[in-house]
Amino acid sequence: MVLLIDIGNTHIHAAAVKNKRVLADIIIPSNSLLTGEAKSALAKLIKTTKCNAPFGTVFCSVAPKLNQPLKKILRDNWKCSTLQLTAKTTVGIGIDYPKPNTIGADRLANSIAAQAKFGSPVIVVDFGTAVTFDIVDSNKNYVGGIITPGLAAMTEYLHEKTALLPRIKITEPRSIIGKNTQDAMLIGAVIGYRGLISGLLTQLKKELNLSKMPVVATGGYANLIAKKIKSIKHVDPLLTIKGLQLVGQKHRPRWWNN
Hints:
Elements: E1 2-7, E2 11-18, E3 21-29, H1 32-35, H2 37-49, E4 56-61, H3 67-78, E5 81-84, E6 94-95, H4 105-118, E7 122-127, E8 130-136, E9 141-149, H5 151-161, H6 181-207, E10 215-219, H7 222-226, E11 234-235, H8 239-251
Parallel strand pairs: 1-4, 4-5, 6-9, 7-10, 10-11
Antiparallel strand pairs: 1-2, 2-3, 7-8, 8-9
Protein backbone atom coordinates (compact mmCIF):
# COMPACT_ATOMS: atom_id res chain seq x y z
CA MET A 1 0.00 0.00 0.00
CA VAL A 2 1.02 3.59 -0.62
CA LEU A 3 -0.38 6.78 0.90
CA LEU A 4 -0.87 9.68 -1.48
CA ILE A 5 -1.31 13.06 0.21
CA ASP A 6 -2.11 16.48 -1.22
CA ILE A 7 -1.51 19.26 1.33
CA GLY A 8 -3.49 22.34 0.37
CA ASN A 9 -3.90 25.71 2.04
CA THR A 10 -7.30 24.80 3.46
CA HIS A 11 -7.65 21.03 3.20
CA ILE A 12 -5.57 17.87 2.97
CA HIS A 13 -6.68 15.09 0.64
CA ALA A 14 -5.20 11.72 1.54
CA ALA A 15 -5.77 8.43 -0.27
CA ALA A 16 -4.60 4.87 0.31
CA VAL A 17 -3.77 3.06 -2.93
CA LYS A 18 -2.95 -0.55 -3.66
CA ASN A 19 -2.57 -2.21 -7.05
CA LYS A 20 -3.38 1.16 -8.67
CA ARG A 21 -6.77 1.22 -6.94
CA VAL A 22 -7.89 3.79 -4.39
CA LEU A 23 -8.93 1.79 -1.33
CA ALA A 24 -10.15 4.79 0.67
CA ASP A 25 -9.64 8.53 0.88
CA ILE A 26 -10.30 11.36 3.33
CA ILE A 27 -10.39 15.15 3.35
CA ILE A 28 -9.31 16.87 6.56
CA PRO A 29 -8.43 20.46 7.54
CA SER A 30 -4.83 21.41 6.78
CA ASN A 31 -4.25 22.79 10.27
CA SER A 32 -5.05 19.35 11.70
CA LEU A 33 -1.37 18.55 11.12
CA LEU A 34 -0.56 21.17 13.74
CA THR A 35 -3.35 20.34 16.21
CA GLY A 36 -2.65 16.60 16.20
CA GLU A 37 -6.04 15.64 14.74
CA ALA A 38 -4.45 14.50 11.49
CA LYS A 39 -2.79 11.58 13.24
CA SER A 40 -6.09 9.99 14.26
CA ALA A 41 -7.67 10.71 10.88
CA LEU A 42 -4.78 9.05 9.04
CA ALA A 43 -4.86 6.14 11.47
CA LYS A 44 -8.52 5.53 10.65
CA LEU A 45 -7.79 5.74 6.93
CA ILE A 46 -4.94 3.24 7.22
CA LYS A 47 -7.02 0.92 9.42
CA THR A 48 -9.76 0.70 6.77
CA THR A 49 -7.23 -0.67 4.28
CA LYS A 50 -6.21 -3.57 6.54
CA CYS A 51 -2.64 -3.06 5.32
CA ASN A 52 0.38 -3.34 7.55
CA ALA A 53 3.16 -0.79 8.05
CA PRO A 54 5.74 0.13 6.99
CA PHE A 55 4.55 1.65 3.74
CA GLY A 56 5.51 4.70 1.75
CA THR A 57 3.99 8.09 1.07
CA VAL A 58 4.10 10.35 -1.96
CA PHE A 59 2.96 13.88 -1.19
CA CYS A 60 2.71 17.35 -2.63
CA SER A 61 2.33 20.54 -0.65
CA VAL A 62 1.60 24.23 -1.08
CA ALA A 63 1.99 24.81 2.67
CA PRO A 64 5.71 24.30 3.46
CA LYS A 65 5.27 24.70 7.23
CA LEU A 66 3.15 21.54 7.24
CA ASN A 67 5.68 19.31 5.49
CA GLN A 68 7.76 18.42 8.54
CA PRO A 69 4.73 17.78 10.80
CA LEU A 70 3.42 15.34 8.17
CA LYS A 71 6.77 13.56 7.84
CA LYS A 72 7.08 13.29 11.63
CA ILE A 73 3.61 11.76 12.03
CA LEU A 74 4.29 9.23 9.29
CA ARG A 75 7.77 8.36 10.53
CA ASP A 76 6.93 8.11 14.23
CA ASN A 77 3.71 6.14 13.85
CA TRP A 78 4.18 3.99 10.74
CA LYS A 79 7.89 4.22 9.91
CA CYS A 80 7.00 5.66 6.53
CA SER A 81 9.44 6.75 3.89
CA THR A 82 8.29 9.84 1.98
CA LEU A 83 8.74 11.13 -1.55
CA GLN A 84 7.80 14.76 -2.21
CA LEU A 85 6.64 15.94 -5.60
CA THR A 86 8.60 19.01 -6.71
CA ALA A 87 9.75 20.38 -10.04
CA LYS A 88 12.77 18.06 -9.71
CA THR A 89 10.69 14.90 -9.24
CA THR A 90 8.09 15.62 -11.92
CA VAL A 91 7.50 12.79 -14.39
CA GLY A 92 5.79 12.48 -17.76
CA ILE A 93 5.97 16.18 -18.58
CA GLY A 94 8.71 18.74 -19.08
CA ILE A 95 8.73 22.23 -17.59
CA ASP A 96 9.04 25.33 -19.78
CA TYR A 97 8.76 27.93 -17.03
CA PRO A 98 11.26 30.57 -15.79
CA LYS A 99 11.33 29.50 -12.14
CA PRO A 100 10.13 25.88 -11.89
CA ASN A 101 10.48 25.78 -8.08
CA THR A 102 7.75 28.42 -7.76
CA ILE A 103 5.08 26.23 -9.39
CA GLY A 104 2.58 24.82 -6.90
CA ALA A 105 3.25 21.09 -6.57
CA ASP A 106 -0.46 20.30 -6.74
CA ARG A 107 -0.53 22.03 -10.13
CA LEU A 108 2.28 19.79 -11.31
CA ALA A 109 0.45 16.71 -10.05
CA ASN A 110 -2.70 17.77 -11.91
CA SER A 111 -0.74 18.38 -15.10
CA ILE A 112 1.01 15.01 -14.87
CA ALA A 113 -2.29 13.16 -14.45
CA ALA A 114 -4.13 15.15 -17.12
CA GLN A 115 -1.41 14.63 -19.71
CA ALA A 116 -1.22 10.92 -18.94
CA LYS A 117 -4.97 10.48 -19.37
CA PHE A 118 -5.89 12.94 -22.11
CA GLY A 119 -2.62 13.59 -23.93
CA SER A 120 -1.37 17.04 -24.84
CA PRO A 121 -2.11 19.85 -25.18
CA VAL A 122 -4.44 19.87 -22.19
CA ILE A 123 -5.82 22.40 -19.71
CA VAL A 124 -6.56 21.71 -16.03
CA VAL A 125 -8.89 23.90 -13.96
CA ASP A 126 -8.61 23.26 -10.22
CA PHE A 127 -11.35 24.70 -8.01
CA GLY A 128 -9.49 24.93 -4.70
CA THR A 129 -8.85 27.78 -2.27
CA ALA A 130 -7.69 29.52 -5.44
CA VAL A 131 -8.98 28.57 -8.89
CA THR A 132 -5.97 27.68 -11.01
CA PHE A 133 -5.56 26.99 -14.71
CA ASP A 134 -2.59 24.94 -15.86
CA ILE A 135 -1.50 24.27 -19.42
CA VAL A 136 0.56 21.43 -20.87
CA ASP A 137 1.46 22.25 -24.47
CA SER A 138 1.71 19.99 -27.50
CA ASN A 139 5.33 19.23 -26.59
CA LYS A 140 4.25 17.82 -23.21
CA ASN A 141 5.71 20.80 -21.39
CA TYR A 142 4.10 22.57 -18.47
CA VAL A 143 4.12 26.17 -19.72
CA GLY A 144 2.24 28.13 -17.04
CA GLY A 145 -1.27 29.09 -16.12
CA ILE A 146 -3.67 31.44 -14.37
CA ILE A 147 -4.59 32.01 -10.72
CA THR A 148 -7.87 33.58 -9.56
CA PRO A 149 -9.51 33.79 -6.11
CA GLY A 150 -11.54 30.73 -5.17
CA LEU A 151 -15.30 30.74 -4.74
CA ALA A 152 -15.23 30.30 -0.99
CA ALA A 153 -12.46 32.88 -0.61
CA MET A 154 -14.42 35.44 -2.59
CA THR A 155 -17.72 35.00 -0.75
CA GLU A 156 -16.00 34.85 2.62
CA TYR A 157 -14.16 38.09 1.84
CA LEU A 158 -17.46 39.81 1.01
CA HIS A 159 -18.91 38.61 4.31
CA GLU A 160 -15.92 39.71 6.35
CA LYS A 161 -15.44 43.11 4.71
CA THR A 162 -19.04 44.31 4.55
CA ALA A 163 -21.55 44.96 7.31
CA LEU A 164 -24.66 43.54 5.66
CA LEU A 165 -23.50 40.69 3.43
CA PRO A 166 -23.96 37.27 5.08
CA ARG A 167 -21.91 34.09 4.87
CA ILE A 168 -23.51 31.87 2.22
CA LYS A 169 -23.50 28.22 1.24
CA ILE A 170 -22.47 27.80 -2.38
CA THR A 171 -25.12 25.94 -4.37
CA GLU A 172 -26.81 26.25 -7.76
CA PRO A 173 -28.78 29.54 -8.01
CA ARG A 174 -32.51 29.29 -8.67
CA SER A 175 -32.61 32.29 -11.01
CA ILE A 176 -30.37 34.88 -12.63
CA ILE A 177 -32.19 37.62 -10.69
CA GLY A 178 -31.68 37.60 -6.94
CA LYS A 179 -34.71 38.40 -4.80
CA ASN A 180 -32.69 38.61 -1.60
CA THR A 181 -29.10 39.30 -0.57
CA GLN A 182 -28.11 35.64 -0.30
CA ASP A 183 -29.43 34.78 -3.75
CA ALA A 184 -27.78 37.84 -5.28
CA MET A 185 -24.43 36.81 -3.81
CA LEU A 186 -24.92 33.23 -4.97
CA ILE A 187 -25.60 34.35 -8.55
CA GLY A 188 -22.46 36.46 -8.56
CA ALA A 189 -20.41 33.61 -7.19
CA VAL A 190 -21.65 30.66 -9.26
CA ILE A 191 -22.92 32.13 -12.53
CA GLY A 192 -20.32 34.87 -12.43
CA TYR A 193 -17.56 32.32 -11.97
CA ARG A 194 -18.82 30.30 -14.91
CA GLY A 195 -18.51 33.42 -17.04
CA LEU A 196 -14.99 34.00 -15.73
CA ILE A 197 -13.90 30.41 -16.39
CA SER A 198 -15.49 30.31 -19.85
CA GLY A 199 -13.89 33.60 -20.84
CA LEU A 200 -10.43 32.56 -19.71
CA LEU A 201 -10.70 29.20 -21.48
CA THR A 202 -11.69 30.97 -24.70
CA GLN A 203 -8.67 33.26 -24.47
CA LEU A 204 -6.33 30.36 -23.66
CA LYS A 205 -7.46 28.39 -26.69
CA LYS A 206 -7.09 31.49 -28.85
CA GLU A 207 -3.54 32.12 -27.67
CA LEU A 208 -2.64 28.45 -28.14
CA ASN A 209 -4.27 28.59 -31.59
CA LEU A 210 -6.40 25.56 -30.80
CA SER A 211 -10.16 25.57 -31.13
CA LYS A 212 -10.51 22.21 -29.43
CA MET A 213 -8.45 20.72 -26.65
CA PRO A 214 -9.25 18.64 -23.56
CA VAL A 215 -10.17 20.60 -20.43
CA VAL A 216 -10.37 18.68 -17.16
CA ALA A 217 -11.69 20.11 -13.89
CA THR A 218 -10.90 19.04 -10.35
CA GLY A 219 -11.24 20.43 -6.84
CA GLY A 220 -14.10 21.06 -4.43
CA TYR A 221 -16.48 23.00 -6.67
CA ALA A 222 -15.55 21.36 -9.97
CA ASN A 223 -18.82 19.47 -10.42
CA LEU A 224 -20.99 22.47 -9.57
CA ILE A 225 -19.25 24.98 -11.83
CA ALA A 226 -18.19 22.72 -14.71
CA LYS A 227 -21.58 21.13 -15.35
CA LYS A 228 -22.77 24.20 -17.28
CA ILE A 229 -19.53 25.06 -19.07
CA LYS A 230 -19.56 23.35 -22.46
CA SER A 231 -15.80 23.40 -22.95
CA ILE A 232 -15.18 21.36 -19.77
CA LYS A 233 -15.90 17.77 -20.74
CA HIS A 234 -14.17 15.99 -17.87
CA VAL A 235 -14.34 16.27 -14.07
CA ASP A 236 -11.97 14.16 -11.96
CA PRO A 237 -11.96 14.74 -8.18
CA LEU A 238 -8.95 12.40 -7.84
CA LEU A 239 -6.78 14.09 -10.46
CA THR A 240 -4.12 15.32 -8.01
CA ILE A 241 -4.00 11.93 -6.29
CA LYS A 242 -3.56 10.21 -9.66
CA GLY A 243 -0.66 12.53 -10.48
CA LEU A 244 1.04 11.60 -7.21
CA GLN A 245 0.47 7.93 -7.99
CA LEU A 246 2.22 8.30 -11.35
CA VAL A 247 5.16 10.01 -9.65
CA GLY A 248 5.49 7.14 -7.20
CA GLN A 249 5.28 4.53 -9.91
CA LYS A 250 7.97 6.22 -11.98
CA HIS A 251 10.46 6.73 -9.16
CA ARG A 252 9.67 3.32 -7.66
CA PRO A 253 11.33 3.61 -4.26
CA ARG A 254 11.98 0.36 -2.41
CA TRP A 255 8.64 0.44 -0.60
CA TRP A 256 6.53 0.83 -3.74
CA ASN A 257 4.87 -2.55 -4.13
CA ASN A 258 2.01 -1.80 -6.49
